[in-house]
Specification:
Length: 82
């Protein structure tokens, strides 16, 4: 299980609309490829790119940008973020 939970901050909600991007806290050992496969399998969407950063709380944050034709807003509604 590489995806832990979606991030629901004001900034992460804003990039759902503007950047077609979902922000997730992921397992610290997870690679970009593992995150991509898990996200695509779980939500049935195509991922265009992933950026990963480490937080000061020793967590790993993944910014998952969806491909054209896939809507981050729809995924966010499934996750009850918006």
């Amino acid at each position: 299980m590489t995806l832990n939970y979606p991030l629901a901050t004001e900034k992460s909600i804003g990039i759902i609309e503007k950047g077609n991007t979902i922000t997730y806290i992921v397992d610290f050992r997870a690679t970009k490829e593992q995150v991509k496969k898990e996200f695509e399998r779980r939500f049935g969407v195509r991922v265009a790119s992933i950026r990963i950063s480490n937080t000061s709380r020793n967590e790993k944050k993944a910014f998952i940008k969806l491909a054209k034709g896939s809507s981050a807003s729809e995924v966010a509604m499934k996750l009850k973020l918006v």
